[in-house]
Structures are given as C-alpha cells and as structure tokens.
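User: Hi! I have a protein structure encoded as tokens and I'd like to know what sequence might fold into it. I'm fairly new to this, so please keep things simple.
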C-alpha cells in the first residue's frame, strides 16, 4: 500500500491513535550530529521522526533509548573502544554482528558511555529515574534509563570494560570531540566477570539481580590508548 505518509500519520494522531517510530543507525551516523563525514544521509536521531515523517515536534511523546551492551559499527569512521583482537571477534561471532543491508561484518568493541551520554543529550530520553533512586557519583544529574540489550553476549568474557571518558593531551573532555585524533585516550572502567547462566529456559526475572550489580568497579580512571 502506498500512501501520503504525512497526511496518514497526522490523521492517525488526530484520531487519538498511538504511533511507534523506530529509529535506525544511531546518533554517531546522524548527518548533523554524527562523526562526519562517516555518516549516513539522513537524520538518525529523534529529530528524524519530524524531518522524515512530517510529524510536528509537539506530537512527540516518550523517547526511549535502546543500546547494545557493547558497541558496533559498519564501515569506516572513528571507533575509540574498538577491539581488533579476540574480544572483537567474539562479540562479532557470538552476537551475529553482520550489516543487514550490506552483509558486511560489523566492527565491535566495548560499550562507549561517552557516546551514550551524547546520545541522551541530543535525543532527550524521557524515561529516567530521580538521582535519589540510583547511586551515582554525580547525584545532581538526572539519570537516564536506557534499555540494554544483548548482555548475554558478554557472558563468556573474563572481564568487561566500559569507556567512560575521553582525554586529549591529558585533559578530560567535557564534550564530544569535533575530530578524533591519534593522541585521544580513553578512560575505562573495568568490571570483573559477571557470567550469567543462559542454558535452558529461563524465567523472565532470572539473573536480573546479578545484572544490576555486575561487579565492583576496579578503577574509573584507568587510562589507556588501546582498550
């Protein structure tokens, strides 16, 4: 069925229908906010719902963030937490990380919390908890809740790392760098293994307690140019 999507969606809104819009490619491939020139040709952030579908900004309701427990990328472009080793191979193979359109293997690496924070600032995820309900180092900030997927892909790893900050020439950056240079260091936090048992059927809440507290934080400011 071919329709004028602008008219179709706006009529649906006025009729009180609920509409779910799913984004693709994520913030770092966004034409305006991504790692240009290694981007796609469209808006991959929440703004794409308006510019791509003709939905008025005032019609946007809840915005939910969805992220893998690790980071992937197809094609060229900066990838600070990329793992060009057995870790990356494990994530690619076990996670079945292959480009849907191109069929190319996805590049894989540790979760990049700097990108997550950047994405939350741009997209304004509305599903969040008050600071008093979640233990945080910076309790004056609102804590955005992002839906974490594919956590089980990390099960067989002895340790899990997360990139938490970027440093350039020894100075921690407070924003996403305009260009990624060779002297950019990554601050990583290291977690011990938090292996979950996924063999056989599971109840919906099985293993959740261990996921909430995956392990003790070894060193938030353990910095290395290669994770």
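Assistant: Happy to help. Inverse folding works backwards from shape to sequence: for each of the 227 positions I chose a residue that suits the local structure. Here it is:
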């Amino acid at each position: 069925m071919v329709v004028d999507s602008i008219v179709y969606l706006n009529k649906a809104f006025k009729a009180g229908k609920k509409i779910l819009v799913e984004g693709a490619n994520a913030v770092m491939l966004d034409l305006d906010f991504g790692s240009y020139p290694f981007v796609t040709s469209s808006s991959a952030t929440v703004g794409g719902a308006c510019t791509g579908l003709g939905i008025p900004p005032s019609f946007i309701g809840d915005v939910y963030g969805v992220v893998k427990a690790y980071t992937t990328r197809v094609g060229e472009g900066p990838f600070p937490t990329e793992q060009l080793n057995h870790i990356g191979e494990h994530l690619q193979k076990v996670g079945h990380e292959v480009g849907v359109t191109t069929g190319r293997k996805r590049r894989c690496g540790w979760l990049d919390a700097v990108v997550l924070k950047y994405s939350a600032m741009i997209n304004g995820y509305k599903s969040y908890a008050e600071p008093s309900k979640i233990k945080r180092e910076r309790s004056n900030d609102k804590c955005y809740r992002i839906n974490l997927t594919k956590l089980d892909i990390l099960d067989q790893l002895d340790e899990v790392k997360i990139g938490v900050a970027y440093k350039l020439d020894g100075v921690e950056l407070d924003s996403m760098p305009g260009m990624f240079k060779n002297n950019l260091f990554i601050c990583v936090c290291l977690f011990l293994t938090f292996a979950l048992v996924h063999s056989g059927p599971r109840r919906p809440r099985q293993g959740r307690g261990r996921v909430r507290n995956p392990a003790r934080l070894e060193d938030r400011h353990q910095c290395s140019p290669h994770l």
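A useful reference point when you look it over: The radius of gyration is 19 Å. Feel free to ask if any position seems puzzling.
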